[in-house]
Amino acid sequence: MRIKKSRLKVGIIGCGAIGTEIAKACQERLKDKIELIGICDIDAKKASNLNNNLKKKVPIFEVDELIRRASLVVEAASASVSGGIIEKVVKNKKSCLVMSVGGLLGKEGLLKRAAKAGVKIYLPSGAICGIDGLKSANVGAIDRVTLTTRKPLRALEGAPYLVENNIDLSSVKHETVIFEGSAKEAIRGFPQNVNVSAILSLAGIGAGRTRVRIVASPDYTKNVHEVEIGGAFGRIVTRTENMPSKANPKTSQLAIFSAIATLEGIVNSVKIGT
Q: Among 3, 67, 84, 251, which residue is least crowded by beta carbons within 10 Å?
């Protein structure tokens, strides 16, 4: 008699562009290995809209109830709440896939607490290539990690750094360097735009030493991330040209695909890559 394997019970916190695509993947691409048990969002309308776009509606829970019922929680909300969600999953001894990695900078102790509690925390590569090489290089000595991000103007709208420095994007008529600094500073000033700098920092030499340049132009139509890594191993240079998500231009489509690929890696027995 064939024994039917149980599916991984997944709950999603955050029903925006990323949460929506992950939810659909759970019910379609990954339906044989994942059961979407519920969704959650501080905005009830977003949760309802997502539910209406699913093949099969699921319960809409409050955060604590969703964490209690799920085996793996997907955080797709925002950097302002990702740390708090990890605290809750660690307390409940549940696994968590974190999309808003920027919210973990300065709170790396949460990852140590998760490890001590035996809780699995998954951080997708997001909208860049080269994290596998960076992790490998970090076994030795890394001298530098630099990220240059090129974005369309509309992808940067509303960023705190622009508001604080009175930068008017409508006055940008050609390719312009908007920001230069550490990853720590970049995440603070552009929390919705350079999440990739956070994953680079955690996988490499930290947010203080990882350097970031943000360049904008009215002529750009894609989110482009160029990464340079140098160290004892040699040199790595990557360039990723991302198409923005149609639902949210601040999110690269590859970041969404990366989350779905991470889920596949969790439920599949064969692991490929570092």
A: 3
77-112: pLDDT as tens digits: 998 899 999 999 999 999 999 999 989 988 999 999
**Could you give the strand order of the β-sheet that contains 211-217, starting from the edge strand earlier in sequence?**
176-182, 211-217, 142-152, 223-231, 234-242
> In the chain, which residue ranges form alpha helices assigned H by DSSP?
17-27, 44-52, 63-69, 79-92, 109-117, 131-137, 160-164, 183-189, 195-203, 253-267
Q: Is 104 left (phi over 0), alpha (psi -120 to 50) or beta?
A: alpha
What burial class does residue 230 get, using C-beta atoms within 10 Å of its C-beta: 0-12 exposed, 13-18 middle, 19+ buried? middle
User: 3.10.25.10, 3.30.360.10, 3.90.76.10, 3.40.50.720: which CATH number matches 131-249?
Assistant: 3.30.360.10
- Structural domain spans, the chain: 8-126+254-267, 131-249
For residues 221 and 109, is the Cβ–Cβ distance under 8 A? no
- pTM for the model stands at 0.91
